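Field reference: sequence -> structure
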Amino acid sequence: MPDSEYIFEVDVPSDVENFSNINTDTNPFEVSVKMKAAGNILSNLDARESLYSNAMTNDATLGIFSEFIYDEGCKIEEAVIQFKIDDEMQSKQILKRLKILSSIHCFH
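Structure field:
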């Protein structure tokens, strides 16, 4: 059975080259993926900032919008994308959301 038909199960960690355009020092989260897919997952998976990132950015977003591309000749059975958010950024975002919620609450 060729690799393009055989299903592999792989945990792709955050430190692989595939995620170098997303997992940067300026992005407040790290991405990793668990996949069940055909083909060589590390060779067929590409991740980058979405072309729509600027258009979709607002106060409710955190970091860049990621886009994941996989060789269309290979089947994906399952993919779980994991985002590990920096603890300091997580605290800042929670406080920001509380301020927004409290200001909304004051007007109701």
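Note: The helical segments are 41-44, 53-56, 87-107.
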